[in-house]
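Q: Got a minute? One more chain.
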Amino acid sequence: MTDNALRQQSIYDILRRSAARHPQKLAIRQHGVGWTYAEFHHLCRAAAAGLAARGIQPGDRVAILSRNSNAFAVARFAIAAAGAVLVPVNFMLNAQEAAYIVDHSEARLLLVGPTEVDKALAVAGLCPRVESLLWLNLDSPPAEGLGAFSELLQTEPLSRPVAVDERTPAQIIYTSGTESAPKGAVLSHAAVLWQYGSILADAEVAGDDRLLHALPLFHCAQLDCFLGPSLQAGGSNIITDDNSADNLLRLLQEECITSFFAPPTVWISLLRAPAFDTADLSALRKGYYGASIMPVEVLKEIQARLPQLRLWNLYGQTEIAPTATILKPEDQLRKAGSAGKPVLHVETRLVDDAGNDVEVGAIGEVVHRSPQLLTEYFKNPEKTAEAFAGGWFHSGDLGTFDEEGYLTIVDRKKDMIKTGGENVSGREVEETIYQLPWVAEVAVIGLPHPTWVEAVAAVVVAKADAGSAVDEQAVIEHCQGQLAGFKVPKRVIIAPDLPRNPSGKILKRTLREAHAAAFTAA
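A: Always. Here it is, folded:
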């Protein structure tokens, strides 16, 4: 046995060890179909052997275009056991956008969920490297033109996983940032496992948790903040592909869920659902949110209506696998709006454009050092070098530290509003507008203005029962009473909803494009 094998710790190894510790405990369930840890481990080993039998070699990329499923979970660990590299693809992308990721990653195999067949066939037609498509479903025969992932499970299980070292790539996750072409963040097995350690320590994911996974597993937040750490700890995991409020409330009650993660938008949808008041959520003890800061008024409402619930705010990005800082339950109201402090395995600074630390209270760019960080942007050495300039990873976010070292994210570096020479944090204005009782959601952006270059504008979504309370001028007057004049929106736009990416982040770029002529049309 080699020295590496003696000390190996891969994404697959954490499942193997959990299966040895908890063989009869529920690991995964969806739609009433559940597997113990021993059963789940067996399926992952068989699928890994099946991938190898189909010619997948260590280092090959395997893409997944699918909604959440128990088969997705099997594929995730089978790919790791085979020494291949996972490339999860956002199922909300169109065929051309998805094809860019599949082609750029040089994936040889595409695993396809039942609702994505037409898109996947179009993607394969644009990606000559893709050799085959497999139907990622265990309950029905494959669609025409696809092989069956379920057939892989009939293979004699892999006796030993492929050896990996700490820098072996585990996954390439493509960013959903503001640039036209997404970048592929290469994350090693070690980076992902350091991330798991941070989550187990600071987010208190534990073996006695029953977790509901409703956000897309193609996104690293659900995959590597919750599913992976839970399986390492020995937790029980319920998977759903339907994140409607009614379905989530039903599962939270029926499955006696103790732990649940969602962006603020989903928490808001639960609070507004008619079924919320009659649902028995007494088992729910741990709540997590991320993607954006929870509005203070919503935070207060959650704590009033679910007094037994402890809340954590997770902040980070794909490139750090993805958690950088956490705001813990005891600080939710005391430090409302903060992203908290760096997690166990992350070091964070705020720097100016010259790379110098900024003073307490001053705005600087968030930079990190951590074993959780990406190895590189795939096939993009220029962006890699730019991101690691000065020996720190540059997040592109702007923030401040208070006297106690708590981080508050002010904006994306490219999203700071500069109006008439003054910097305005959209987040500060949003918090002020959220104080109005009829406001459900708000996004504050900068729009081109003939006098001010950029002007502050607010796009507001009203609550369903707001009625006559909806009033653009009332928003402006409310802000005038609490903010400096240059921070007050010069335009308020009432909208039916706000555009978002799959992780729940509001797409301010899309809003800026849609309303670019708001001050110039006249």
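A: The domain at 193-412 is CATH 3.40.50.12780 (Rossmann fold).
Q: Perfect, thanks.
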